[in-house]
Amino acid sequence: MKADPQAQRRLLDLQAIDTTLAQLAHRRRTLPEHAQLDTLARELSALEDERVRAQVAVDDLDRDIARLERDIEQVRARKDKDQARLTAGSGPARELEALQHEMTSLTRRQTDLEDAELELMEQRETAQSTLDEVTGRIESTRARRVEVEAAREKTLAEIASEEKFKSSARTPLANDLPADLIALYDKVRENSGGLAAALLRGGRCGGCRIDFSATERNRIKAADPAEVLRCEECRRIMVRTAESGL
């Protein structure tokens, strides 16, 4: 294939744009914020599980405390009733004596229940403290997620803006080059990891960085300036300029 040497040199400009676009795409895929957000998502999931367990512990203690309070109220009501009967002093002596014994038992029962309630309330205070601490960590992690998301969106917007700028420069450049040269360039780029056109410099291919043999140097020197040369090793398009040193 033959193409105007100037058109071949402009392939380097096109390649520079395509390389930048590829780098921008890679940068978008590998933003550190992506990994940070994944880590934060896992942290939030684990914290939410921890929060649920802490909330269940608080709820269980609240339920047990409420049950003890009901039992205490029942004992108090029974004591008040018995005390009223004792104060009235009506009824047989044996019955009044039984009431007195029952009052003693009820007082002991009330004390036991109140001690148990106090212990549970202390446990609840500890459980609530744990729940508050986990909730605080969740809020802090969520705030951090918002910050990272904002940073990611800002960077993505910058990448999109630069891509738009580069793409706007690529279109007229590509359209101005010979169709068959662009077709070859695109095919090589697809098969060579994105690098299709490389500068031939100092007797070395700019694509694979391999030094040419004397025979290959002579072949390149003898080639028509309009001939589109390709590296024998990497098959990339070799663009000759004043820097080629041949």
Structure, described:
With 246 residues, this protein is mainly α. The protein has 2 domains: 5-25 and 178-244, Helix Hairpins (Orthogonal Bundle), CATH 1.10.287; 31-173, Helix Hairpins (Orthogonal Bundle), CATH 1.10.287. It has 5 helices and 4 strands. It has a 4-stranded mixed sheet with strand order 2-1-4-3. Helix 2 runs antiparallel to helix 3 (93-176). The longest helix has 84 residues, at 93-176. The chain starts with a helix and ends in a 6-residue tail after the last strand. The model has no long low-confidence stretch (mean pLDDT 93).
In CATH, what is the class of the largest domain?
Mainly Alpha
Order of helices and strands: HHHHEEHEE
Q: In which order are the strands of the major sheet placed?
A: 2-1-4-3
Number of domains: 2
Examine the coordinates and then state which fold CATH places here, giving the name of the CATH topology of the largest domain: Helix Hairpins
> Helix segment count?
5
What would you call the quaternary organization? single chain
Percent in helix:
over 70%
